[in-house]
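Predicting holo structure, 5-O-phosphono-beta-D-ribofuranosylamine bound.
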Amino acid sequence: MGVKIAVFASGTGTNADAIIRFFKADEVADVTLVVSSKHGAGVLDVADGHGVVSVVVDKDVMADEEVLLALLEAYEIDFIVLAGWLRLIPPFLVRAFNGRMLNIHPALLPKFGGKGMWGHHVHEAVKAAGEKVSGITIHQVSEAYDEGAIVAQFETSVEANDSASDIEAKVRALELKHFPVVIKKFILASMG
Ligand code: GRF
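Done. Tokens:
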């Protein structure tokens, strides 16, 4: 058992699925907990399918330093990955996991980031802006949305006739291909 990762996600869980699968075949780390903010989120089924423990935490728990840190301690969590976590991470968690928490954003930050820039809103904004490229940004988590130190970025072309969902599909492919590998490299470089 290597580094224990908690994935925080509240969406369909395609990234969580890719990350869990990757580390099932890699000794550097394991996903041992999935944390979601929404009952019924697809990511909870993903966790169940992989036999990974999942918990749903509401706003109060997320804001309660003692409770949330005790939960992560109980699962001996060393590293946090945000993969479709739409809430701001409380400052106490940013501090407790400084250098041990990564987020993925489906655009090339600093453009198309910040509050409200999530999911299809991002790709619609990229389309509306007539961008020729889009992509993903994997970054460390700070106390403001999408402003932590950038760890990696990967680009894809955007054609004039691409719809927002075409862009989303291209960006999603980058996420699933690169996020698990970047997490592993970051862990090896900083915790290995
Ligand atoms: C992804 O687009 C990711 O970039 C963003 O939230 C979405 C999560 O999608 N942070 P999924 O739940 O992994 O399918």
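The chain is about 40% helix and 20% strand.
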